[in-house]
Amino acid sequence: MSNGSTSSLFDYVPHPHMQQRQATGPPKVAAAAAKMHGQNALGRFNAKVGLRITLVVGTMWCAYAFTVLALVSAPTAFRSGDSLIIVAWIAQTFLQLVLLPIIIVGQNVQAAAADARAQATYDDAAAVLAEAKQIQAHLAAQDLALEHIIDVVRGQT
Q: What are phi and psi of 151, to 5 degrees?
């Protein structure tokens, strides 16, 4: 029993996942990166570089900088009068340079919301587990009381 009392009415057997989950805690980005790139020095380096680049490129400031960079070649593209060059500039220069960091910003916002939901779910599950342990302890106490009542009734008959 979780509270140390014993009862012949019920034997509590905790699920093995409980101990593992309590030991590991909620999933973390570092663990996911290690699975993706490996836990050796090269894998850790690749994960750090990739994360750093994503953090830098995935900002609105980078989107603004890329917009300015893309606009540098805009006058030349439009002066050419060639629709293929204009379309290529819009698609290959402006959209790719500007949308890339904006998409990353959006993904970062969504990832932060998903992480918050995951943490809340983990915290809720931990609270439910604690409540279940309290219920189990209460039931163990009731089992002892019932056993005592049964012993008293048997002694009187």
A: -60, -40
